[in-house]
Amino acid sequence: MDDLFAPSDVSWTPVSPKLATVRRLNAALMFGVAGIGALVVLGLTVGWTYGVLALVVLGAGFVWSWVLIGRNQRSWKYAERDDELLVSHGIMFRELVVVPYGRMQFVDVTAGPLERAYGIATVELHTATPATDAKIPGLHPDEAGRLRDRLSALGQAQAWGL
What we know:
Layout (H helix, E strand, L loop, with lengths): L12 E2 L3 H28 L2 H28 L1 E4 L3 E6 L5 E6 L3 E7 L2 H6 L2 E7 L6 E6 L1 H20 L2
Antiparallel strand pairs: 1-2, 2-3, 3-4, 5-6, 6-7
Helix pairs in contact: 1-2
């Protein structure tokens, strides 16, 4: 049986490992702020033992997220076909989005402050149906620009045939 999420006639392109670094840094900031807040609030109201316990629980959550972020980053990949773009991701809940070039309305390239600092960007494809929108995070800015230009040109060329 062919794998529904990895067609054999496709050459997949993975995203940058820097995506995991950016997401882990984001998680560290969020868990750090939550941990300090929980320690102070619980320590001053209920007792320092509960504050430290909350800090330990949040620390375990951070370690778990560290592992999951790495696995998730390795699952992201995309492939360009003649008539469509394929985007696949997910470990437990896998997803394969197939976007025909003729259905694309516009293509966005975005990069937040951390993404820019680490030299990555996200390409988002928008279609008339939000369910078929797709995004590819963790691309080198040059690749994101190339993909944006190529997808826009292919989308416009395919749309003329409708």
